[in-house]
Amino acid sequence: MATKKKKKASKLGGLNIKYLGGLLLSKMAIGGAKRLRSNAEEVNKLNVFPVPDGDTGDNMRMTIESGIAAIENIDSDDLAEVMKTLSHGMLLGARGNSGVILSQFFAGMAKGLDGSEKADPVTFGHALELGVQQAYSSVMTPTEGTILTVAREAVEYAVANITPKSTIRSLFADLVKEMHASLDRTPEALSVLKEAGVVDSGGAGLLYIMEGFNRVLNGEDVSDESADYSVARVSAPSTSAFDENSDMSFGYCTEFLLQLRNGKADVSTFDLDKLKAFLSELGDSIVAFMTGSIVKVHVHTFTPDKVLGYCLAYGDFITVKIENMSLQHTESGDISQSAPEPEKKEVAPPKKYGIVTVSNGPGVEQLFRDLGSDEVIFGGQTNNPSTSDFISAFENINAENIFVFPNNSNIFMAAQQAGDLYEKARIYVVPSKSIGTGYVALSCMNLEAQSAKEILSELNDVLDRVTSAYISPSIRDADISGIHINSGDTIGIIGKEIVVSEPDRMLATKKLASYLLDMPEKFMLTVFRGTDSTPEEQEELSTYLSKSHPDAEVYFIDGGQEIYPFIFVVE
Question: Residue 243's CB: how many other CB atoms inside 10 A?
Answer without folding.
Answer: 7
